[in-house]
């Protein structure tokens, strides 16, 4: 496993361990480490949405009905911006919501593409807490990552329930190549 895979697994496992089981996924390549980890977790309940607004309102309704935070997962760029109306409602109505936006690494942001917008504080003052730990790597220890997830979950419910935003940048490759892929690379000319 590479760092992206490890972080995806650790994040999702920690959320599930705390009883956060509803994952609303707006698929995209940058969020692959997170969505693959959800798919591999037998306890995680996921719904895939091709419209981010629909995902956000489904998550909001689920959280309103259960009182537990639902998790939104999306790829980089404008995908997260489509969550804004539901994030605002979550904030005003004090409904627990955890938004995980995948992002590009800093060197690939603000390049003029809609997938490379600056997502830092994209939800402004409507979230109870925002954090961007940087790209997965040994500098941010597993203990620090798990502590961050625990803190984020607690902020969705205390002292005032509402949305929390974690911006998670991932560098390619998202996964280690398996043996079959490595052997194919050996056969292809450079």
UniProtKB/TrEMBL annotation:
<keyword id="KW-0808">Transferase</keyword>
<dbReference type="GO" id="GO:0046872">
    <property type="term" value="F:metal ion binding"/>
</dbReference>
<keyword id="KW-0460">Magnesium</keyword>
<dbReference type="GO" id="GO:0070204">
    <property type="term" value="F:2-succinyl-5-enolpyruvyl-6-hydroxy-3-cyclohexene-1-carboxylic-acid synthase activity"/>
</dbReference>
<dbReference type="InterPro" id="IPR029061">
    <property type="entry name" value="THDP-binding"/>
</dbReference>
<keyword id="KW-0786">Thiamine pyrophosphate</keyword>
<dbReference type="InterPro" id="IPR012001">
    <property type="entry name" value="Thiamin_PyroP_enz_TPP-bd_dom"/>
</dbReference>
<dbReference type="GO" id="GO:0009234">
    <property type="term" value="P:menaquinone biosynthetic process"/>
</dbReference>
<dbReference type="Pfam" id="PF02776">
    <property type="entry name" value="TPP_enzyme_N"/>
</dbReference>
<dbReference type="InterPro" id="IPR004433">
    <property type="entry name" value="MenaQ_synth_MenD"/>
</dbReference>
<feature type="domain" description="Thiamine pyrophosphate enzyme N-terminal TPP-binding">
    <location>
        <begin position="8"/>
        <end position="121"/>
    </location>
</feature>
<protein>
    <submittedName>
        <fullName>2-succinyl-5-enolpyruvyl-6-hydroxy-3-cyclohexene-1-carboxylic-acid synthase</fullName>
        <ecNumber>2.2.1.9</ecNumber>
    </submittedName>
</protein>
<keyword id="KW-0464">Manganese</keyword>
<dbReference type="GO" id="GO:0030976">
    <property type="term" value="F:thiamine pyrophosphate binding"/>
</dbReference>
<keyword id="KW-0479">Metal-binding</keyword>
């Amino acid at each position: 496993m590479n760092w992206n895979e490890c972080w995806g697994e650790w994040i999702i496992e920690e959320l599930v361990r705390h009883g956060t089981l509803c994952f609303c996924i707006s698929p995209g390549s940058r969020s692959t480490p997170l969505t693959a980890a959800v798919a591999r977790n037998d306890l995680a309940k996921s719904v895939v949405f091709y419209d981010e607004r629909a995902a956000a309102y489904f998550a909001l309704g689920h959280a309103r009905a259960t009182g537990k935070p639902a998790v939104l997962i999306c790829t980089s760029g404008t995908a997260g911006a489509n969550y804004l109306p539901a994030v605002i409602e979550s904030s005003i109505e004090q409904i627990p919501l955890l938004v995980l936006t995948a992002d590009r690494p800093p060197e690939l942001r603000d390049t003029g593409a809609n997938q490379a917008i600056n997502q830092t504080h994209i939800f402004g003052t409507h979230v109870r807490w925002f954090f961007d730990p940087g790209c997965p790597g040994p500098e941010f220890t597993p203990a620090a990552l798990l502590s961050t997830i625990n803190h984020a979950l607690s902020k969705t419910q205390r002292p005032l329930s509402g949305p929390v935003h974690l911006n998670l940048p991932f560098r390619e490759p998202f996964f280690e190549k398996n043996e079959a892929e490595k052997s194919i690379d050996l056969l292809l000319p450079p």
